[in-house]
Amino acid sequence: MKLNGAAAITYCGKPDPNAAGALIYGADAMRVALRRQELIAALIGPEGEAEMRLTRMAGADLRRDAALLVDAIKAQGFFPGPRVAFVEEATETTAPAITAALLDWRPGDAQIVVTGNLTTKSAVVKLFDAHPTARSIGVYDDPPGRDEIAAILRKSGLTEISPQAMADLTALARDLDPGDFRQTVEKVALYKWGDPGPLLPEDVAACAPATIEAGVDDLVETVVEQRVAAIGGLVRRLEGQGVLPVTICIGMLRHFRLLQALLADPRGPVQYRLKGRQKEAMPRQAQAWGPHRTEEAIALLLDTDLTLRSASRAPSMALLERALIRLAMLKR
C-alpha cells in the first residue's frame, strides 16, 4: 500500500500495529533515516531497543543469508511487546529474501521495516506497494511543508504558532538540511519551555543558526530568476561564511558569459559544460534575458568587479549587493 504526503507523515507518527511492515525509500539518506527513526519509535516505544525488541540487519547480510529476516520476524524475545525486524540499505538483490519474509509473515510476528536508496521501479518497492497491509513510503528531497513542520512542532510540545513564525520556520526548512532543522525546532521548544504564549517570529530568530550554508550558485540563480527580495539574505549568509565579494562577482560573470555563449550558438560546445539543473535552466534563462540585457548585465558586473578590486573605500559587500539588486531588476 503506497502512502504519500500527509498520509505518510501521519503513518510514521502513528503506524498500524497490525501491519506486516513498511518500506521507507529515497535518495536522501538523512530524510529516510529520520522517517525510519520516527516509525520504529512509534512501533516499539522508547525502550524497545533496550529491551531487545529491535533486530537490525544490513542488506548485504541478508543477501548472504536469506533466512536471517524470516528468523528475525519469528523469534520471541525475553521482554513482551511489539517487535521490529529492520533491514537497512536494501537493494534489488535483497528482494527475494524480503518477499519470502512477507509471504511467511503472520499476525504476532515482528513488523518488517526496510530502508534503502530505491526507485519506484524497484522490485522491493513494487512488493510493498502491492501488499495488502505493508506500507510503502517514498521520501523525496522536497523541504518539509507546513503540515510536516506543524507535526514536528507538536511532537516537541509546541501547539500554538503564529502565522509569521510558521512562515519563518518554513523558510528555515528550505535552507537547512533535515537533521539541522529538527535540531533547530528542538532548540525552539526548549527556548519556549514554560512559556504559555504562542510561538513568535522573535523566538524563531533567537534559535535559528547565525549563518546558514549557502553557495554562490544559489545567489546566481536568485539574481537571474529576479527574486530580488531574497538577494540580501543570501549575501549576508555568504558573507558570514567568509566568501569574498570578488568571488561572488566572478561567479556571476561566469554565468552570464555562459548565457551569452548559448545565445550566440545554442548548439555549440558550451552545451557540454552544462551539468545537472543547468541543462534545463540555462537555455530558458538565456531566452528570457536575451542578448541585449545579457550584455548589459556583463557590463554592469565588469564595472562592479573593477570597483571591488580598486582602492575604493566603499564597503565591498554592500557595493556588490546593490549591483546584484540592479542586475536582478534589469530584466524588468
Automatic annotation (TrEMBL):
<dbReference type="InterPro" id="IPR027417">
    <property type="entry name" value="P-loop_NTPase"/>
</dbReference>
<protein>
    <recommendedName>
        <fullName>DNA-directed DNA polymerase</fullName>
        <ecNumber>2.7.7.7</ecNumber>
    </recommendedName>
</protein>
<keyword id="KW-0235">DNA replication</keyword>
<keyword id="KW-0548">Nucleotidyltransferase</keyword>
<dbReference type="InterPro" id="IPR008921">
    <property type="entry name" value="DNA_pol3_clamp-load_cplx_C"/>
</dbReference>
<keyword id="KW-0808">Transferase</keyword>
<comment type="similarity">
    <text>Belongs to the DNA polymerase HolA subunit family.</text>
</comment>
<keyword id="KW-0239">DNA-directed DNA polymerase</keyword>
<dbReference type="InterPro" id="IPR005790">
    <property type="entry name" value="DNA_polIII_delta"/>
</dbReference>
